[in-house]
């Protein structure tokens, strides 16, 4: 009986990570934790989809330039789009790899294969697009893989329920830039 209790206790410790607050991720399993970018030197310092501008700027610092209304550039290759004062998109651009990565650990410069190891092989198949896209239906809690079946035209409000991590790949299939956003931002640029 004691041996069973010890085994159960050891299993619980390994599953819970001994109380660690750092997020753990599995390929092909998406969650709201995927909607964050973190500072490379301090993984607890994060900017997440839905955060207020004040919360975001506590992490990224002061704006360098407003490239369009509510679309703001910050130092070290990060750009944020705000909708109604909340983060609706996070962009990791050239120059961000030393400072920022996704909560899952992906960063600009990684290869397509490295991205698939982190996120899994259930991505939206867009042959020849030069993008590696992971769409997540937050309402039904599932990854979407078929653009014709899974992404019918929707209202802007419905499009907010679809989250995505999109990576633009260069000619050598390395991440040129990455975006964490909802489908409303992707479709309507809003």
TrEMBL record:
Protein name: Lipoprotein
Lineage: Bacteria, Bacillati, Bacillota, Bacilli, Bacillales
